[in-house]
Amino acid sequence: MIDAFEKKIGETLADPALQLKIYTNTATLVDKRKTAVSEEAFPEYQELRTKANALKRHAIEHLDLYLEQFEANVIAHGGKVIWCRDATEVSDFVLNLAKERQAKLIVKSKSMTTEEIDLNERLEHHGLEPVETDLGEYIIQLRHERPYHIVAPALHLTRHDVADVFTEKLGIPHDTVIENQTMTARGLLREKFLAADIGISGANFLVADSGAVVLVENEGNARLTTTAPKIHIAVAGIEKIIPRAQDLGVFLKLLGRSATGQPLTVYTSFLSGPKRTGEIDGPEEFYLVLLDNGRTKLIADEAKRQSLYCIRCGACLNICPVYRKIGGHSFPWAYSGPIGAIISPQFLGIDHTPKLPFASSLCGACADVCPVKIDIPQVLLDLRAEVSKSPLEHRAFRIFAWMMTHPAIYRLSAKIGLKLFFLAKLAPPAKAWLSQRDLPNPPEKSFTDLWKLRAKKS
Amino acid sequence: METAREEILSKIRTGLNRKQDEPAPAVRLKPYAGTPELFLKRVHAVGGKISRAQRPIDVRSYIADALQGRSAVASNAPLLHELGITAMEGVKCGFRNYTELREACSKAGVGITCADYALADTGTLVMLSSREEARIVSLLPPAHIAVVAKNRILGGLDELLTKVPKPGDLTSSMVLITGPSRTGDIEQILVRGVHGPGEIHVIVL
Amino acid sequence: MAKGRISLFVTCVVDQLFPNVGIAMADVLERAGYELDVPENQTCCGQPAFNSGYREEARMVAEHFRKVFADAEYVIVPSGSCASMISHHFHDLQVKVAPKVYEFSTFLTEVAKIEDFGAKFDGVVTYHDSCHALRDLRIKEGPRRLLSKVRGLELREMDAAEECCGFGGTFSVKFAGISGGMARTKIESIKRTGADTIVSIDSSCLMQLQGAISREGLNMKTMHLAEVLASK
After folding, report:
1. What is the three-state SS of chain B?
2. How far is A269 from chain B (nearest CA, A)?
3. DSSP H stretches of helix in A45-86
4. Which of A279, A296, A313 is the C-terminal boundary of a domain?
5. How many domains does chain A fold into?
């Protein structure tokens, strides 16, 4: 019985052009990261990973205190904090504010958190015009698609796909030159930045001791989004908290290198509230939306709360041999790859996509590259233990356990299985195996038998 | 009826069931000195154009060349005035009003600023928003020229965070600028000058 | 004079499908001067049940393992994934084993401290880093050093040496399409080395790769490290 998850996987596997795109683009990111974190380039890498894990663990384990401290500092700098339990509360806040200020045009910088809560859809539904300004996000917004990757939303697209959607949606002549496509977007979006009433950003980090939002980017759209419009709304999951500004000395060194191989991205913004007296530009109003949306559920699970340490670098996606075959759209939620595989069941419900935790060979490459040392394979194993089991499979493994605790039965069953190999090949697991590769030839004797003979000889 | 704030904080406290509060793990920042040579080398490596100036006239001369007839907006940094840059041909300055500044910046070809600090190990400019330095001068025009006094050059991020442990106390916006604006969003092919300036010049005096 | 008595846990995969790997491992360990004990009631480490989320069933099998090897001082295992299951995950099942459990190549390099077995093997070999061995047990250089002592053997590294072969236990049948794709990607990397033999310390990986090789009709073979070291 193939479910929607498996169906989408099958479609992706059967598309050779897409397979090539995914593999090539992730390969570039893998190589860049590898060079940036090599022993020569970054000798303190492992030490900083350990420190980052300790800092995130501490921040999460004291999250209530740090959120209160953060809020007090945001207010002290002239901003407001809006606590939201779910997607509706966020969109209600934005809609009400927009109504009060008679705002319509909204520019957005890249935020996976806003993807998670389908914010754009909700705002559009109520007649607002949210425009994505990150180039990749802008392209997929035109295509009405979800991001394909946490850091590179248009990873699955070629210049031809971009030319097609620009011609279709913007009415411009078909142009496959990437530089031209970029300049087209630049020109269009510049107008939006300068006309927008509200700028909505995400947050890479929330700094508790400063009441600050840290935004990390290469294009400059986050700077423009948070500078040009009169109102800046930053939407962030509560887990984005880090205790102190000095902790950026750990996180910023890891984030750029892990994501794109850059020691620092082009722009890192440290924003504390609306513009101050004397400052010439900057937003007049600043709102920090703190989102729960299920994060408190994960906090309550001691073994799995490490899933919240994620700093959204995307390194686990790039290195994952499964992601590199099935791509971002095979995953059921906004977040894909190994991190998506562990948080989706925890947010959406363990039985929402019951096969998701099993779509992994548990190779552990993700854990190796995670800058905050989340033990992703361990969380996958925990999820596998929790997911509802099919009665048929459960019976099969009960028989397995019985067999393996009764050596005589094990040896007899194995003998029969090998003798009747041609029948064993018809069983569904064998057929699944054979759909992709050949089975080994069954040996004449088992090792145990051979060993007994060897003992007899001597 | 619990507010969202109360509910979220309550769920966190219940979920953590913390027996006692622990102090945050110490972060050892390792400040080290940065040289103008290393700084300019790194700026060049990330795609910026560089110049080492000894006297004010060298700075003006470089800028005159770099402008190539384009109009420019200069920030209100006192150093730019002292160096005579604000008096140069084609350079507008003295904006105190956001609307006018924005208008000027959207028409200008070049934005000229100073930098509060510079990070040598990554070739980074550090700009704090203030009455002297508005945000958009280094953001809206397609080219950016930064004049950096050499005593402002720090070793790296650690030294910056040691010198400025609470940026929020000083400004609403501290921006670290490392090279020209870029993207690889289409086929991982690098394109410069997406939204921010695609051309960066850094002059160390 | 024997160096000591050690026990072998051959794993269910080697026992039933690749018995020659077990024989080769025994040969090499005897050549190293050890007396071998192979408890006849051994079966499996329980990993298939554990990885599929059946902890109670896995615990029962782990408990059986504990009893079978209760009197052993050392247990040698020709598999990184099984060795890792025992050393790292029996803990999750509240099962504690008495003996020191070693993956085969690690035992040779770290306990026996012998790397040259007088082995001879003519061929171009590439080494596959199986995932549990590489990442859980930190096995990387040991097998390569052992291979470097084999006369006539030329070792060439593939660019994807550390990439998963796609086996992953039941993953290989639950997500056969992805698993097969991963094997084929790995095979492409192997082809680029020009090697005719793939060596690993995990028979499950070798079974996966051999299956894909055979399906493509390629002229390559797979061998367990033990079989190479036992070659004369």
Report:
1. CCCHHHHHHHHHHHHHCCCCCCCCCCCCCCCCCCCHHHHHHHHHHCCCEEEECCCHHHHHHHHHHHHCCCCEEECCCHHHHHCCHHHCCCEECCCCCHHHHHHHHHHCCEEEEECCEEECCCCEEEEECCCCCCCHHHCCCCEEEEEECHHHEECCHHHHHHHCCCHHHHCCEEEEECCCCEECCCCCCCEECCCCCCEEEEEEC
2. 4
3. 45-61, 63-76
4. A296
5. 2
A78-137 tens-digit pLDDT: 999 999 999 999 999 999 999 999 999 999 999 999 999 999 999 999 999 999 999 999
ipTM: 0.97
In angstroms, the separation between the Cα of residue A249 and the nearest Cα of chain C is 28
C-alpha to C-alpha distances, A261 to A37, A255, A314, A358, nearest whole angstrom: 8, 9, 11, 30
Fold of B37-204: Rossmann fold (3.40.50)
Q: Is B11 within 8 Å of chain A by CB?
A: yes
Residue C55 CA to residue A299 CA, distance in Å, equals 24
- Contact partners for chain C, using 3 or more CB pairs closer than 8 A, are A
Cα–Cα distances (Å) from A359 to A148, A322, C173, C205, in that order, read 18, 7, 11, 18
Contacts of C44 in chain A (CB under 8 A): 404, 410
Domain range list for chain C: 5-111, 116-229
Report CB contact under 8 Å: A13, C136.
no
Q: Is A290 helix (H, G, I), strand (E, B) or coil?
A: strand
Whole domain around residue A422: which residue ranges?
A: 398-457
pLDDT band (50, 70, 90) for residue A428 = confident
Domain ranges of chain B: 37-204
A432 vs chain C: nearest CA distance in angstroms?
Answer: 5
Tokens of C187: 């095979």
- Give me the CATH number covering residue A63: 3.40.50.10420
Q: Tell me, yes or no, whether A282 and A416 share the same domain.
A: no
* Helix, strand, or coil (residue A312): coil
pLDDT score recorded for residue A418: 81
Same structural domain, A103 and A232:
yes
Q: Crossing angle, helix A4-13 and helix C176-193, to 10 degrees?
A: 30
Closest chain A residue to C208, measured at CA:
A437
Paired with B174 in beta bridges are A270, B128
From chain B, pick out residues whose CB is under 8 angstroms from the CB of A194: 102, 106
To the nearest whole angstrom, how far is the Cα of A289 from the nearest Cα of chain C? 38
Q: What is the mean pLDDT of chain C?
A: 96
Q: Is residue A418 part of a domain?
A: yes
Q: Which residues of A touch C63 (CB under 8 A)?
A: 405
Interface mutation target, options A356, A363, A373, chain C, most CBs of C under 10 Å: A363
Cβ C216 vs Cβ A438: under 8 Å: no
Residue A29 included in any domain: no
Please check whether residues A403 and A281 belong to one and the same domain.
no
* Cβ atoms within 10 Å, residue A167: 13
The reply to whether residue C211 touches residue A439, judged by beta carbons under 8 angstroms, is yes
Residue B183 in contact with partner chain A when CB distance is under 8 A:
yes
Instruction: State the Cα–Cα distance between residues A186 and A171, nearest whole angstrom.
Output: 16
Mean pLDDT over residues A42-55, rounded? 98
Provide φ and ψ at C74, rounded to 5°.
Answer: -125, 140
C38 closest CB neighbour out of A398, A403, A451: A451
Chain A residue with CA closest to B23: the answer is A58
Asked if B38 reaches chain A (Cβ–Cβ under 8 Å), the answer is no
Per CATH, the number for C5-111 is 3.40.50
B118-152, pLDDT tens digit by residue? 999 999 999 999 999 999 999 999 999 999 999 99
Is A106 touching B (CB cutoff 8 A)? no
Does domain C116-229 fall under CATH 3.40.50.11810? My reply is yes
Q: Could you say which of A230, A264, A296 is where a domain stops? A: A296
